[in-house]
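Notebook entry, structure prediction.
Reason for the run: the old model in the group folder had no record of what sequence produced it. Starting over properly, with the input documented here first.
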Amino acid sequence: MMRATLLGTGTSTGVPLIGCQCPVCTSDDPRNRRLRPSMMLEVDGAVILIDTSSDFRQQALRYAIPRVDAVLYTHLHADHILGLDDLRVYNFRQRASIPCFGSEETLAALKRTFRYAFEEVTEGGGVPSIDLVPIDGPFEAAGTAVTPVPLFHGSLPVYGYRIGAFAYLTDCNRIPEEGWSLLGDLDVLVLDALRYRPHSTHFNVEQALAAAARIGARRTLLTHIAHEIDHTAPRFPLPAGVEFGYDGLIFDVE
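New structure, fully documented this time:
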């Protein structure tokens, strides 16, 4: 059994958007308060993160993340990686480095962005201890079998991840044929659905619903949601088995 928690379901700006007075950004519905996108997976006592979002410290405190045994990075954008420095608290507590998995391009970006963690520089305050593990096919993270799912985020190749009957596909607007072939027989799918209007690098809701219908998971949760989508007053009903995700939603997958 795997327990999954949506740590953040917002877009790169988070919701509320700074300075915005729209109905969503001023809403009292807690589902309309969305941190940057990431997930926690708990399997046999191990904790696996998908991305370390810009809001990771807040997420770790809010959801009492007890440890971190591995991180799966989807891609190199700021909202998905900038929480990496806060992993050092887990290094201190666990007395071990943390393996971080991702494409060669993503790991190279981590080394550039967090240069101080990977090169000899002036010490002070401690640095995260990270083992970068490049992937291009199935692998194991903290004893759990993981399959990377190739996606496109505009023209940028990115990864989604499949673990058992669960898949997480954020930041994408196209699934290549080799990706579709990895997505059969899912219990739960978490899928990018930025807004109702089209976007150049993300599925909008209509496109996400078409992808969800083709994949056919028994339950689909939409994520990476901008402030144009209101949980309190959705623009139209979603199909059976599809719902907007929200921060703190927990579900189990066999």
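Summary: The CA atoms of residues 86 and 246 lie 23 Å apart.
The old model has been moved to the deprecated folder.
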